[in-house]
Amino acid sequence: MKEADFLQELKELDLLKQAMSILEWDAQTGMPDAAQDYRSEVDGYLSGLYFDKATGPKIAEALDYFAEHPEELSEVGQAAYRLVKKEYELNQAVPKDVMTVYSQAVSKAHGAWSKARQANDFSLFRDALADNIRLTKDLIRYQKKEQANAYDVLLDQYEPSLTTAELDQVFHRLREGIMAIRATLAEKGQAPAKDFLARKMPKSGQQKFITKVAEELGYDFDRGRLDDTIHPFATGINHNDVRITTRWREKDFMTAIFGVIHEAGHGIYEQNIAEKYEYTPVHEGASMGIHESQSLFNELIIGGSRQFWEKQYPFFKECAAGVFDDLPFIDFYRGMKHSQSSLIRIEADSLTYPLHIIIRYEIEKELFNGTLTVDELPAVWKQKYQEYLGITPPDDLTGILQDVHWSGGMFGYFPSYALGYMYAAQLYHKMQETIDVAAVLATDDYSPIRKWLTEKVHRFGASKTPSEIILDATGETLNPQYLLDYLQELYFEVYQVQVIEHV
Amino acid sequence: MKEADFLQELKELDLLKQAMSILEWDAQTGMPDAAQDYRSEVDGYLSGLYFDKATGPKIAEALDYFAEHPEELSEVGQAAYRLVKKEYELNQAVPKDVMTVYSQAVSKAHGAWSKARQANDFSLFRDALADNIRLTKDLIRYQKKEQANAYDVLLDQYEPSLTTAELDQVFHRLREGIMAIRATLAEKGQAPAKDFLARKMPKSGQQKFITKVAEELGYDFDRGRLDDTIHPFATGINHNDVRITTRWREKDFMTAIFGVIHEAGHGIYEQNIAEKYEYTPVHEGASMGIHESQSLFNELIIGGSRQFWEKQYPFFKECAAGVFDDLPFIDFYRGMKHSQSSLIRIEADSLTYPLHIIIRYEIEKELFNGTLTVDELPAVWKQKYQEYLGITPPDDLTGILQDVHWSGGMFGYFPSYALGYMYAAQLYHKMQETIDVAAVLATDDYSPIRKWLTEKVHRFGASKTPSEIILDATGETLNPQYLLDYLQELYFEVYQVQVIEHV
């Protein structure tokens, strides 16, 4: 077998994946609802072709051959080999009939979850969720290799090599730190006014503002596009076609403005992976956590910067056609960065967001490593929201039914979001050693920031593991302290907390 | 072999085709230009999968088996069998290497045509066009069965069973008839004023108007959508997903208004094919000519109706926000239906349009059945425009380089457009026996027209040949007289020609 044959097979797999990505983008942006059943058939057929090829004889032969002759692979081939081997072994580990039963259960659970949401009644989702958990535990038994426990197997799928042992420590520090900051804000802080956030800003004005900002941040519209959707996402179809989406709320401009800043971060990542990796699984993000670190770098670090907003505010006011002309900049900035307990994860501010994730992590871990049962879930959910955020969901819709993840069998995914926060802050800390970020954000040219991230993160695609990327970029492993330091400094400023220096 | 196995194979082919249709729609509506090269790879790969499957052993086995056991096929299976057999034999007839050479030449010719257009210089396209013609002649040698001549083989691809012998007669009558009407208009007619056609009507107003009209005509937006594009088209992806596109010109409202009325006709056809034919090649139009008959029924018959416009005019004026408030209805109507010689086919009015087609037909026929050479083309083109339309193109861009068809090897396609005109008028004539069309078009409810067309044309999909559809629907074969009668009545009214009745 020649490397070229191996790469050709990967290219064909990638071409199928590109077609599936366009179909998925289309389903989320423009497809008539009535076409859903027909579309499911197309998706199912292409997925089947993909799976058969990804587990087929050519891939098997390549994996065998290059295990014996690794020196015949180029750097691209070697990086691809590692990823393909992992996916192949994961697919091979589970008997086909077990996987079929699992897929059917997941598909059914999504329907049950939708119905339960419509009825605002967890009990309608209970059995399907129990099935998803039970069948996922079956899969874990087949997939488990050297991992210490069941939940580690799930974590590894989204964040290679991440373990429960590590997350326990990291999340403990993060939770304690955030709760301490919140306590200080409550005791000594001045909460900013935020009524203005509900002022009406027409879609066209929001669009004009955020399109220019996304471009300035480095998102290349010549190799992308921005569309409307219900659930915002970014999708890297190929090197020259990376699309982002958003939804618009005229009386809540923050939804689209921060939504696009966030998705543009994902998009910029995908647009700047080295083109040599195209047509292989290396031309993707290194992990969910690293991907989120790039969207959250945009949303949290850049979108949280006073200098950035001070520079953009005149243009923002212009796009809002007078609606904010009476509002002093500092009130605008402080209002956007207010923080308060809320029930819905995706609407949470950047200080409370990690707590939503930690709640889900603790629950999932107990479901898979411990003895927590589905019937105990609603009570545990409410108790943890009360304990960490001081509020209790009044119903299932604002509580345990809010996320799609469990209906889709995506256990182990949530931690990625919090990892993204921590990675972003850690990268930011390191970046400041060579770039005066606040100064750059006060200028017209943000490119030094984008270039640093491309140099340290984007270009590698999935050729490095997440921990390699963070270690190589910052000189140390994941450290939650940078996020805590960042949040404390930011929110103490916004809430005008007087820090008494003990001299 | 069971019928279910045959239909399953056809379904898988159809699922691939659906994926390719979405990709094509995407390429024409929203894909970033920069992604073209990547997209070509995806298209090429999926086309290859499709071709291998369509010419593969399962189809071959089914064709053999059901040739012996036709009684084991349902009506759907039988209709599908006929179409599959024809496509299979066409594919099998040509050796793969000959087809590859042809495909490469076509791809190259498209590039040459684009360059020639940019330079406004036919000589840059000359060699590629000569290659396309030479290689098409090679294909014809392999594909020719009982057809009398080379051009008949080409016609049969787009309009099954249509022959040069029949078209010669039909086009002769059509040309003579149209030229006679034009002579009368020139001699006795009052040309309407049409300056108002260039008044500015914003896109949003045009959109509001035409969306409502398309819906009233029967285009179902719940199973479709309207998007912007450069080259308007309609595409039936599946029974519940039939999309149309248009372009907008603020200072030429007719482009989008009549464009959408036209494309909606294609869309309504696809939306009303019997759903039982879905996942087979029967769930398509019967031919290019029949498809055009449905778009042109909308554009020519409905869009040419005084009663239709009289009813719509108040809403049109409202959508134009006052721009046409000073314009009496009859001036609006007459202006839209003015006729004059023009150089560009796709901008021609309904009276002169067929002459553009006849010119192309005569040229193509001589290229394939006669002795016309590529070097003689520019002169012949100019001479025919002078002879039939009284004008001579000043350059290649407004002359021989205007159409994409020859660069794509689509010889034999042009007559479909003129067939669509004649079929539409013939169907209209028959429809009037049971429906007072003018009266219906003066009401709020156009559904009797749509239902008649569904009953006689749409629902059959490709289960009948075009000639069967016309014969069954109208009781006679193609007859160009109905179009001539229709055009004469319409244009004599618009041009206020006094018809002296000899008593």
UniProtKB/TrEMBL annotation, chains A, B:
EC identifiers of the protein: 3.4.17.19
What Pfam family is a match for this entry?
Peptidase_M32
CDD domains documented for this protein: M32_Taq (cd06460)
List the PROSITE patterns hit by this protein, alphabetically: PEPTIDASE_M32 (PS52034)
Write out the catalysed reaction: Release of a C-terminal amino acid with broad specificity, except for -Pro
- Enumerate the InterPro entries for this protein: Peptidase_M32_Taq (IPR001333)
Question: Which UniProt keywords are given for this protein, alphabetically ordered?
Answer: Carboxypeptidase, Hydrolase, Metal-binding, Metalloprotease, Protease
Which terms in the Gene Ontology molecular function aspect does this entry carry?
A: carboxypeptidase activity
What protein family does this chain belong to? Belongs to the peptidase M32 family.
User: What's the stated role of this polypeptide?
Assistant: Broad specificity carboxypetidase that releases amino acids sequentially from the C-terminus, including neutral, aromatic, polar and basic residues.
The record ties this protein, via PANTHER family, to: CARBOXYPEPTIDASE 1, METAL-DEPENDENT CARBOXYPEPTIDASE
Which protein, by its recorded name, is this?
A: Metal-dependent carboxypeptidase
